[in-house]
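Appendix B. Chain record.
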Amino acid sequence: MNETPPKKSAGSSWLNVAVDYGPLLVFLAVYRWNAPAESNPFGEINAIIYGTAAFMLAAIAALAISKWRLGKVSPMLWFSTALIVGFGALTIFFGDPVFVQLKPTIIYTVFGVALLTGFFMGRPLLKILLEAAFEGLSEEGWLKLSRNWGVFFLFLAVLNEVLRAQLDFEGWLWAKFWVFLPLSFIFTFANIPMLLKHGLDVGQEEDVAKDEPPTA
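Structure tokens predicted for this chain:
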């Protein structure tokens, strides 16, 4: 007897968003709470260290919540959390924020190169990395989505480096919310017509928007 896979609930979709962006929000809140009132290089470093430590703990908690509530952890989330912990530890040890700022660049570059390599080899790696299955989406649709996200990730890697060079640390943190997050949602919605053209079930259109790859 064939069983129809249960459709993903709206709650689990929003949980994905919280898992992806919650740790970054914790980072910003702890950093702002500890930021010095006046220009003080030592106070600034302390605020960054406290924020980074909170970021690491929140990322690990988000991974555990994903496993508990969703029953799985995507390879992308495993990799992202490992880099958060690794580069966060280097930031705390050396007292240098450059390590935590480089983490997004490395994530975007690795995923971008991997997705484009898979595209040229005819393998939709995004489907594997997300462990997601959008009902009705053809293999060609997955390939095009992998290609598009691959290019977008490389764009984000370059953008992160430009903003890191041009902004102070707090400005760079705010850019994660006011630049990267809106761009990611706009890009995700821009792909929906292509996905619908390649067989995506109309009922899953909202889930696609909420299940975008993590860009924190």
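Further analysis of this model is presented in Appendix C.
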